[in-house]
Amino acid sequence: MTAKTILGAGLALALVAACGEEDVILPGERFALRDAPVFENSVQPISLPAARANADWTDRNGGPSHQITHPALGASLAPVFAVSIGEGDSRRARITAEPVVAGGVIYTIDARATVTATTVNGTNLWTRNLTPGRDLWSDASGGAVMVGGGRVYVTTGFGEISALDAATGHTLWVQDLDAPVNASATLLGGLVYVVGRDSTAWALDVENGRIRWQQAGTPSVANFDSGASPAVSGDTVILPFPSGEIIATYPEGGIRRWSTVVSGDRLGRAASLVSDIAGDPVIANGRVYVGNFGGRIVALDIKDGSRIWIASEGAISPVWPVGDAVFVINDVNELVRLNAETGDPVWRVDLPNFTDGKTSRQRRVYAHYGPVLAGGRLIVTSSDGQIRQFDPTSGALIASVELPGGAASAPVVAGQTLYVVSKDGKLHAFR
Hints:
Strand content: 35-45%
Oligomer: single chain
Radius of gyration: 24 Å
CATH architecture: 7 Propeller
Shape: globular
CATH class: Mainly Beta
């Protein structure tokens, strides 16, 4: 018997003996590995501006700054119409944009780059497929629409942005960006701004689509599905990049004003590794609000990018600042009200999370879109087939309306009517 054999046998006997010993319970207080303070919701009054009827909803959250404040909407919602806009969600393609509204027409894009114009009466005005001929059978998916100045600007997963005549759908120009662009463009003055998934931003001439200037951000390999669109107000353009970087530039020439990075994540979640900006920048009251997918929302001074506060909440869509509150759907499917001055949570409400309640099968989650403040309440559309309405003071559920097919987009409000696109490729109107 060799020395190695004797040593191995001795170790085996020691392990067997150890298995027979009773566990020794040490005295003393036990502490959690991660201390999580107990949060209690509070009911706080909120001073809302008067609801005003808006005819148009041209961009994310209603306008180029991504803030429209408080659209008017009736106290109860009933379906008005549901019409097809093309292909819905499938294993290989997804709808990634909400509708936009201008001049009594709703513009949508389906999962396969088909743009549709629908009147507010539910009548089809025109349809245009923007799949390039060379990519007719490609699996590229997603895209977004934005409307302004009598034109519809369409970004697609094929790496192109097109300008269409809003009345006819006729193509005015096409610019190849050589990178997928699933978030909407933003228009102000004579320039159209867009950010690609390759961390490049462009400013394009509205007349011909020619590139006026470019900005390069830090590259990223872990990206959110649809990305975020630029926000513009006055002499500031806020460009969000997949890496979590935010660059503020002047409109003319793209001269950089300041830059920062939204960093930080939520412990214990693999998705927190995605630093992409999912909560599009929102410009309001001299601030820029922006959130990443991983677990952080920041409020920045628009003049120099200095941080006013940081909240330990992720964002899956643009926040909605109003009065002394900031409302958001966070990265763990909660509707949250934050204090606008400090970023501290006031209340949080659980939204439906996993599609299967069994722990062993919790692989897919419900998607929630919004929130939108309209008619004095917060509105959230969800892929589980519900439009939920909440009290902004307490977070209490006020009402719920069935949405056949389940939501694939955030709600938009124009002409005191709510529009939303469902996963089966239909545009729904409620009033």
